[in-house]
Amino acid sequence: MSRLPLEKIRVLDLTRVLAGPFGSQILADMGADVIKIERPGAGDDARIFGEPYLRNADGEATRENAFYLSVNRNKRSVALNIAKPEGQALIRELVKSSDVVMENYKVGDLKRYGLDYESLKSINPGIVYCSVTGYGQTGPLAAKPGYDAVFQGECGLMSVTGVPEGKPGAGPMKVGPSIIDLFTGLNVANAILAALYHRDANGGEGQYIDIALLDCGVSALSHYAQIYLTSGEVPVRRGTQGNGGMPTSMFPCSDGAIMITSGNDKQYVALCDAVGHPELATHPRFHTNVLRVAHRDEITEVFNAIFATNTADYWLEKLGAAGIPSGPINDLEQVFAYPQAMHRGLRARAPHPLKPDLDVIRSPLNFSETPITDYRAPPMLGEHTREVLAKELGLDEAAIDGLASYGII
Hints:
Elements: E1 10-14, H1 19-29, E2 33-38, E3 53-55, E4 61-65, H2 66-69, E5 75-79, H3 85-95, E6 100-103, H4 117-121, E7 128-133, H5 148-154, H6 179-200, E8 208-212, H7 213-220, H8 222-231, E9 248-253, E10 256-261, H9 265-274, H10 289-294, H11 296-307, H12 312-321, E11 326-328, H13 332-337, H14 339-343, E12 347-349, E13 359-361, H15 385-391, H16 397-405
Parallel strand pairs: 1-2, 1-6, 2-5, 6-7, 7-8
Antiparallel strand pairs: 3-4, 9-10, 10-11, 12-13
Helix pairs in contact: 1-6, 6-7
């Protein structure tokens, strides 16, 4: 069996809900031993986010919900009460053999437990310690709580998402998924990998990483934010229209809709030919992309009328033959039945104690020498508590029973 890239790395994960767990799941997929610390009896806050719940082999609902399952595969769960001194002591013992500590508590919260970076650094100088918060460790809002939807508004994402002004239904719109959390998780994984490389390849030491959802949200706005910084102009909502090559938009067809991106002048000429209107390629207001961007609404209306004359499948066949970037507007049922998604194996199998045929989302990372081929199901609460305490800390059965009797685990 091929080795995985991070199989010698151990991560002690005290994060909850989405941003932190998504980041640690990326590391777990690549082979890191992620030990997820959860509150006894309650667990990660994501466990109480409600339906839909996993149904077991008999079709009965369980307490394992889809939200939690989405970001916790390939981890081990240890139920441990860090509010008690004995629980804190066990964390410090685990830190001795860990490479990374992740947490998303309020700023300064873990210091009162002696589980802050400086305290753990004194135990393990090589530790990489990553704190994930809404606003960062410093600044006027550092103590303020927040969730993804709040940051979608604060970072500017909602201001450039939704129906344009003057159109029916105009107004800022939240992106469906918790996208700021997910951007943050990607940054968390990248930052941790960079810190590990610095420590192990560059002869450096462990270090502290401060990741904020607000920072990640603004960074993810990329060219939209740069438009403002470059020109001083505040970008506006454009619905499904693109911001570069035109026409780029969702176009209604007679039985649905399709998405098209005409990224350059060559593609635009091919698009005009494919839809049977070659004269549009030399139209005085459309013959260069600069002109098409300047007349974006007009050209969108022209192509709206064209695509409305036939079905989505008809147009996608025409556009595909002409090499025009285009595709259907799939719902999730259609996504997992999409031929390319099926070929890429985006649905993976991770046998769960309650459901042997549990499906999960495959990691998008494809390595030639260290492929990710096997997935372990997201753990049930405390599923690995005894295993970790016995194997990693050498506690015997009596000692573990004693911890359980005092509510430590």
